[in-house]
Amino acid sequence: MVTLCCAPDWMKGGKSGADNTDWSRSALETAPDPDHYKDFAALAVTVAKRYPDVRHFIVWNEFKGFWNDSRARWDYEGYTELYNLVYKALKKVDEKNMVGGPYLVMDSVDPRQQENASTAVKGPWGAMDQRVLDAFDYWNRNKAGADFVVVDGSSYTKDDDLLPNEFAATDKLTAVGEWVRARTRGLPLWWAEYYVEPADGNDDRTGWSETRRVAVQATGMIAMARGGASSGFYWNPEEERGSDCAGCLWTPTSGGDGGTKLPMYDLVSRFGKEFPPGTTYETVPVAKDDVPNVRVLADDKAVLVVNTLDRAISAKVDGKRFELPAYGVKWLRR
């Protein structure tokens, strides 16, 4: 899969040539000028021809550079124009190329906020930013086509609030998925990025124990699956040395003893194995007393159970009684 972002400087008012490239974040996140949309589509064609084994292409990233300051909303007309040019160009290269967008960040606000808050997509976790929904709807109505749809987002609000708590906040991922799927006529839904733990000022996520982190991550993946997602990309953090790496899948690979799997690896890899795209999910019985305390996802062969409490519990799920430690994650066979 290739994410087609971002544009060379000469497409946005700068000079051509690698020596003249402005590598600052603000420059990289600047969208191409409308006069160069066709040039960007031509660049996408070059990429597709150079890597013919790649079949999936995401057009742009998080609407970066597509904010309309004068209207205080997303420039969804500009993005959609760029998207359509790229879509058509890639299909001319090979009709089998799979193209998707719009890769919007599905921001939400505090449930008490009224300004820019959606009145339709909301819950205890907050309310969707209506400007994001408007941008998605415009793209969806005016796109030249799509083979899959892409979103990005977090379970917490724009103010980094996990409402009403870190586990229940993941219900947002389900609500967003259901809203998107209802509008896209069965297109596969990809979460190109998803986050369930707010970052600190250095963009680090180290405030939780790894046991708690894995439990919330499992709950987030369950929520995405319930919302109809077919794919979710886990952005793996990395440290240069040591085994103390919050949320990492494996230890640093710079040394001979590196690459040892960490707890998050077991969860992410097994989730993908047990619940691949196209899985038909089933409802399993959960003891009444356990319903508020566990999150469950099941198909005809496996059941994933998460203890959302910071204490051990005895739970009964799918007719089986078992013990779960604080923030425990357990797989059952059926």
From TrEMBL:
Q: Which Gene3D superfamilies match?
A: Glycosidases
Domain of life from the UniProt record: Bacteria
**MF terms in GO:** hydrolase activity, hydrolyzing O-glycosyl compounds
Classification via InterPro entries: GH (IPR017853), Glycosyl_Hydrolase_39 (IPR051923)
Q: What is this protein called?
A: Xylan 1,4-beta-xylosidase
